Amino acid sequence: MFYILITIGLVFIGLGIYVDKDRKPQTIIEEIFKAEESIEIKSLEERISILEKRLDNHINNIKKQEGLKVKKEGIKKENKPPTFETIAKQVLDERLKKNTRSLKPEEKVKLIKEYEKEGFSIEDICELLDINKGEVLLLKNLYKD
């Protein structure tokens, strides 16, 4: 058994040497250069992917900054001189703030529903009616229609 394994091993070694003799040294050198080039290409591809990620992040940051500038410009454009309607609404809101303590719960609920329809948040409603957030939520839930 031992001799059989040694002969098989020698046959494979001889076959490997025979195949290597057919290959010229020039082809071996070319294969080495191809391997080195593939390593360089992989490293360059990694660098490119890192640069692409950095550029994407940078572009996103620039877009966010431009979006903030647009929002600020939009706010500046919205700050128009006050009209009669806006002044009247402010005066009405101030009156409601002062008199909300004396309002009945049903009237408060009507005001809460009106402000919700206009798109005010619960915090805004609390400020307008000069009541706590819990009271607004309680009245809103108690008088559901």
Question: What would your notes on this structure say?
Answer:
- The chain is mostly helical.
- It has two domains: 2-78; 84-142.
- 85% of the residues lie in helices and 0% in strands.
- It has helices at residues 2-22, 25-78, 84-99, 105-118, 122-129, 133-142.
- The N and C termini lie far apart (96 Å).
- The mean pLDDT is 76.
- Residues 34-68 form a coiled coil.
- Keywords: Coiled coil.
Care to count the β-strands?
A: 0
The global form is: elongated
How many structural domains does the protein architecture include?
2
Question: From the alpha-carbon coordinates, what is the Rg to the nearest angstrom?
Answer: 40 Å
Cα distance spanning the termini: 96 Å
Number of helices: 6
Keywords: Coiled coil
